[in-house]
């Protein structure tokens, strides 16, 4: 399911990012379900290693822990940007950007309590904030 939003908007729009940056961030967010699965594996490795994740080691446990840590960080980044961009509607924005749902899908499936214009403004704001933080 793809959103029906135009990838490129006017450069005069306050939330403008380039078309290719938008696609990069969109595909980054669509990896969220994969990160969630990786993060579940973190419980297996918790308490092991010395907490450093900036050096690549040949230890498979450490490497797995590093992957889990990165997945959690990416999830937190997306979730935080949704909260900042959407406020009370952040949960809807999170579903939209991580599951590829459009406004129509959110309206039918989850009864999003806002209009189309506000939703797409928050949607664009999310990607603008994510672009600045990533």
Plain-language structure description:
This protein is an all-alpha fold and 134 residues long. The protein has a domain of 82 residues. The protein has 6 helices and no strands. The longest helix is centred in the middle third of the chain and has 27 residues. It is globular. The chain starts with 18 loop residues before the first helix and ends with a helix. The model has no long low-confidence stretch (mean pLDDT 84).
Overview in brief:
The protein is mainly alpha-helical and 134 residues long. It has helices spanning 19-29, 32-45, 60-86, 90-99, 103-110, 116-133.
List the helices and strands and how they pair.
Blueprint: H1 19-29, H2 32-45, H3 60-86, H4 90-99, H5 103-110, H6 116-133
Helix pairs in contact: 2-3, 3-4, 3-6
For this entry, give a set of tags.
134 residues; mainly alpha; 66% helix; globular
Helix content: 55-70%
> What's the rounded overall pLDDT mean?
84
Q: Compute the gyration radius: what is it?
A: 17 Å
Task: Give the termini distance in whole angstroms.
Answer: 25 Å
């Amino acid at each position: 399911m793809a959103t029906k939003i135009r990838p490129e908007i006017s450069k005069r729009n306050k939330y403008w990012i380039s078309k290719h940056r938008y696609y990069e961030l969109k595909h980054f967010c669509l990896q969220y379900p994969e990160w969630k699965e990786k993060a579940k594996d973190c419980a297996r490795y918790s308490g092991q290693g010395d907490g450093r994740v900036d050096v690549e080691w040949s230890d498979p446990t450490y490497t797995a822990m590093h992957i889990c840590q990165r997945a959690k960080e990416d999830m937190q980044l997306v979730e935080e940007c949704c909260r900042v961009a959407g406020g009370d509607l952040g949960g809807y924005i999170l579903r939209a950007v991580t599951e590829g749902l459009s406004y129509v899908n959110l309206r039918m499936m989850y009864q999003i309590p806002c209009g189309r214009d506000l939703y797409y403004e928050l949607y664009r704001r999310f990607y603008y904030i994510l672009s600045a933080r990533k």
